[in-house]
Amino acid sequence: MNPIALVATGLLVGVFSGMVGVGGGIILVPILVLFFGFSQHAAQGTSTAMLLPPIGILAAWTYYKNGMVDVRAAALLSAGFVLGGLFGAQLAVALPKEILRRSFGCILFGISLKMILGK
C-alpha cells in the first residue's frame, strides 16, 4: 500500500469534508474499495477509524468561529452517534459482504437521486 497515495486520498477526503460535510462514507469508502482493493468491511472500518482522532476538528473550529455551529445540537447528535456507531458497526460486521456492499450502493444511489432530482 502506497503511503503517499493514502495521504493524498486523506487530503482529498478532508477537502470534501471541510467543504460540504461529507467524506468518510460517501467518498473514502468507495475509493478504498475501488482503488486500494479493500473489502467493503475493511473500507468501512478504516474510514471509521480514520475519523476518530481528527473528526474534522479544524473544519469544525472554523465553522464555530464564524458562528455556524449549534453546539447543543452537535452534542446531542454526538450522543446518538456514539450508540448508533456501535450498533451500526455490529450490524455491518454481521452482514455478508455482498449484502453490505449492495446496501451501501443503494443508499448512495438513493441519496444521489434525491440530491439531483429533489428541490
Query: Over the alpha carbons, how many angstroms does the gyration radius reach?
Result: 15 Å
Mean pLDDT: 81
Biggest pleated sheet: none
Number of folding domains?
Answer: 1
Q: Shape, please?
A: globular
Secondary-structure element order, as H and E? HHHHHH
Task: Report the oligomer.
Answer: single chain
Query: Which band does the percent of strand residues land in?
Result: under 5%
The total strand number stands at 0
User: What is the helical fraction, as a range of percent?
Assistant: over 70%
Number of helices, counting only DSSP H or I runs of 4 residues or more: 6
- Based on helices, strands and strand pairing, what is the structural class? mainly alpha
The N- to C-terminal Cα distance equals 42 Å
Contiguous runs where pLDDT drops below 50 for at least 5 residues: none
Write a structural description:
The protein is mainly α and 119 residues long. The chain has one domain (3-117). The protein is 82% helix and 0% strand. Helix 1 (3-20) packs antiparallel against helix 2. The longest helix is centred in the last third of the chain and has 24 residues, at 71-94.
List the helices and strands and how they pair.
Elements: H1 3-20, H2 24-36, H3 40-51, H4 57-65, H5 71-94, H6 97-117
Helix pairs in contact: 1-2, 2-3
